[in-house]
Amino acid sequence: MTMTAYVTDFVGRIAQPCATRIEQFIADTSFDRPTLVLDTDIVARNFAALRAGLGHADIHYAVKANPEPRIIGTLVRLGCHFDAASRGEIELCLRQGADPSAISFGNTVKRASDIAFAHRAGITLFAADAEEELEKIATNAPGAQVYIRLIVGATEADWPLSRKFGCAPDKALELLALARDLSLDPVGFSFHVGSQTRHASMWAGTLDRVADVWRDARAAGFDLTLLNIGGGFPAFYGEEVQHPTLYAASVMDQIARRFGDVPRIMAEPGRGMVADAGMIAAEVLLVSRKSHDDMHRWVYLDIGKFSGLAETMDEAIRYQLVTDRDGDETGPCILAGPSCDSVDVLYEKRPVALPVTLRAGDRVLIRNCGAYTSSYSSVGFNGFPPLDVVVI
Amino acid sequence: MTMTAYVTDFVGRIAQPCATRIEQFIADTSFDRPTLVLDTDIVARNFAALRAGLGHADIHYAVKANPEPRIIGTLVRLGCHFDAASRGEIELCLRQGADPSAISFGNTVKRASDIAFAHRAGITLFAADAEEELEKIATNAPGAQVYIRLIVGATEADWPLSRKFGCAPDKALELLALARDLSLDPVGFSFHVGSQTRHASMWAGTLDRVADVWRDARAAGFDLTLLNIGGGFPAFYGEEVQHPTLYAASVMDQIARRFGDVPRIMAEPGRGMVADAGMIAAEVLLVSRKSHDDMHRWVYLDIGKFSGLAETMDEAIRYQLVTDRDGDETGPCILAGPSCDSVDVLYEKRPVALPVTLRAGDRVLIRNCGAYTSSYSSVGFNGFPPLDVVVI
Questions:
Q1: By the 8 A CB rule, do A387 and A307 touch?
Q2: What is the active site of this protein (chains A, B) (predicted)?
């Protein structure tokens, strides 16, 4: 079967029925608070689609995207590996049956005691981007494999990463050398193209820059074996994205052309693995106008920035909304959350079009909310409980 | 005793020793995760200071600022009233012994079933800013007292509120009339000058505008008895603020000059009641430079935007930091949190000056963190537990 045939078959077979399974569950259920409904079959489908494109690369699911234990358990059974940000995420993966050798400790900022914990638990692969981090790893996980995270400049991602993670190329080789001096095993580099990089073609510039550093390191005598390509695999939020298999295959093809035969490639999809596996059932609490000449209605939901929709910050992620009144005439709305906090406004700069018939008590479904929602939720800001999660 | 004599005595007597009690506790304690240490004696002191200035006004503590049960219990015993944002906050206050008549349901966006709950619990005072909200209150809390929240334009607050809450003056009288038609009891107006309004003189313009609406309403035959002046009472974050008693007395004086003798005045301090009652004990996880020519160091703490310091969003609140190396030479640092999230950077546009000797493992104290920290904390983003809270 060719790649194209596989993808066609794949999409035709299961794309729509799964989305409908969540919608059917929500339609049949009454909720007394905002609830994220997750379908692990969709996670399994996404894993298969990414694996089909990523070939021999190891998929390390970025646990932070959604640490729901049943998602982790599903992925363990499928042979997925894991990228953990903390001791808590490592413990979660181990509890769900992950082998320590399948977990990398990918946060470049780690507490010394957490490195020691991971080392005792059998984890052997750690990220670093600074001298002090390498020293902490050498002390607390002697002999461990380390990869150096690179900053590789501006990208075309919907949500470009800041300079928070990684070191500039001018330090990369020195850090490899320091790791070797500290009796660590410097195996390679990692980078990140930026969250929600919607087309594989956007990887080209970043890969060019990483390949330059890779070549310099090998020329300097470092026998690199690992290239960690990070995340960036996109989810659908209304703007066209490539099919994950085609996307991943295109990225792998670009890597092969620049890096040749790399023994070990790691990819860390998070959003691309789980975003479309979840939908939030929410409710309209109030529809109002502020004055007689207000151009927009204000629509207040029972979920907001502090109860799950943190990624609406700066209106970065634009979720798709579904209501029972879709089909009625629409008008522009400012969408806001339920808390007594003036920053808890979801979309104001670019209002959303919602039915003019919408009113308090109406249900609103928020599509593709499986990533970066439930775990961002506050413990109880304004006395609202955290986002409820149901796995079907 | 004159006001001035009282204030002088007050400041001289208890301002410093209480701050030292928290610092002493932190110095004597080892923490294995970021921890907010709260001193309820300071809350009691702040209540007394505000009451001395607010005179006959009722103080409704804005529970959302810090819902720690022992803070609520302390304030119940002192005779404080409460402003609740949700059913959860109402239940909390009742559990701590508050009388329902001392609780107002101040969120203008309420779930219908929560209004019914509050009504059953004996709460009689509700906020509204829209027709649909009044209809929900009339249905679920028939006969209740309501106040209409006004939008009163730009302020000089450090953190001005958006248009999220309130209605424009052109709708205010119509809403009073609608409330009456719905057999509710429209008792007055509320407004908010904006969080962290640092000087009492900044209230003048807002009070002028509210007084205009107040006069119009009385002229239209509404027998208003309640003026809810909201919050805005400032906390100290490094920029000079007035003493709370002088500040509150000045606000009350401005109100008297504009409104005359108002039977019932409510004030809703949150930040001003609890901010300086808390200090966070945190730890440096990493100090690094991104490249050889990096002008700034990056300092990563074990606490960030998602584990308690949400108010660093847009660098709005600038917390004061204390380290054991204070006194050493300092240099500019970008301060970031521990999560694998590029937006988890606390101060970058305006870097902070920290000792050049600072390194991983060092303790960092964050001053005046009693407000809007613990309850904003995420349930477990990146696998990090929520901010721990200790009350001394």
A1: yes
A2: 340 (proton donor)
Instruction: Give the pLDDT confidence of B92-115 residue by residue, as tens digits.
Output: 999 999 999 999 999 999 999 999
Catalytic residue among B80, B93, B167, B340: B340
Q: Catalytic annotation on B340?
A: yes
- Max Cα separation, chain B? 72
Is A171 in Cβ contact with B342 (below 8 Å)? no
**How far apart, in whole angstroms, are the C-alpha atoms of residue B386 and residue A172?**
34
Residue A11 has pLDDT above 60, yes or no: no
**How far is B239 from B271, CA to CA, in rounded Å?**
15
Q: What is the ipTM metric for this complex? A: 0.92
Strands A103-105, A81-84: parallel, antiparallel or unpaired by DSSP? parallel
Check B380 against A67: CB less than 8 A apart: yes
Which pLDDT tens digit goes with each residue over A216-240? Answer: 999 999 999 999 999 999 998 888 8
CB A205 within 8 A of CB A166: no
Q: Count CB-CB contacts under 10 A for residue A181.
A: 11
| A41-274 matches A276-391 in fold | no
Q: Which residue of A has its CA nearest to B89?
A: A383
Q: Which CATH class is domain A41-274?
A: alpha beta
If one counts every other C-beta atom within 10 angstroms of the C-beta of residue B16, the result is: 10
- Closest-CA distance, A148 to chain B, in angstroms, reads 12
Question: Which one-letter DSSP state was computed for residue A340?
Answer: S
Residue B247 has pLDDT above 60, yes or no: yes
Q: Which two structure tokens, joined as six digits, stand for A205?
A: 């510039």
Task: Say yes or no for a CB contact (<8 Å) between B164 and A298.
Answer: yes
**Which residues on A lie below 8 Å from B306 (Cβ)?**
310, 376
DSSP per residue, A138-178: HHHSTT-EEEEEBP------SB---TTS-B-HHHHHHHHHH
User: DSSP label at A387?
Assistant: P
* Residue B377, φ and ψ in degrees, nearest 5: -55, 140
Question: Rounded mean pLDDT of A130-142?
Answer: 98
Q: Which among A91, A165, A294 has the least Cβ separation from residue B342?
A: A165
Q: Which residue of B has its CA nearest to A173?
A: B291
B289 with A130: Cβ contact below 8 A = yes
Range A161-171 average pLDDT: 86
For residue B67, list chain A residues with Cβ-Cβ distance below 8 A: 380, 383
B133: enclosing H helix or E strand: helix B131-140
CATH architecture of B276-391: Beta Barrel (2.40)
Write down the domain spans for chain B. 106-269, 276-391
Which of chain B's residues have a Cβ under 8 Å away from the Cβ of A167? 288, 290-291
- CATH number, domain B106-269: 3.20.20.10
Q: How far is A198 from chain B (nearest CA, A)?
A: 18
Residue with token string 């904003």: B376
